[in-house]
Amino acid sequence: MRVLLAEDDRDLCSVIERHLRSMCMDVEHCFDAPSAWELISGGLWDAVVLDIMMPGGSGLDILRQMRASGDNTPVLILTALDSIDDRVGGLDAGADDYMTKPFALEELSARVRALTRRITANKDNAYRIEDLVLDIKKRRVTRGGREISLSVREFSMLEYLIRNAGIVLTREQIEHYIWNYGYEGNSNIVDVYIRNLRRKIDDPFDVKLIQTVRSVGYTIRKREL
Asked: What is the pLDDT of residue 41?
């Protein structure tokens, strides 16, 4: 789970980041509104934890920009403003949830998990595209009823692709999602894993699902004939 944390209190930001990472979340942080907007507009996130009052702008303005641009990433507003009007204003601006300071870290991480479940879960916790099925709960992949064995990272990459089916993901987005922003490994590691996935997911079948968009990246969709 990739989470963007925009919080100008550096000490609090550090505490929240450590806690969310301990909950197996991949967290990227920033301390001001311009940086938050740059990260939001430049990447794909599973959730955003957004402070309202930040240097350089308001978190609510960022939220309105997100919704106006069609970005439906779940957003949890985090603020010291706790009046009813403040809460209503945040929710009306497009927030999915609202927490006031001080708060319990355990509740914060639970709410972040709940936000992502609302967006990604379905009745059987499975994603489907054509005859490819990825079962999140069972960590199982099948195509045409045939079970396919994937490594942990292969599964994560396929999940990332299928959750964003039809969206072209850059190599950088995939690398950052799977290996985190601090990764400095093999520059063609994404291509290597894509080849492995194609060998397992596409090669034995007539319909190819993993597509290359030249000079951009990869997407998963049925190829139009």
From this structure: 84
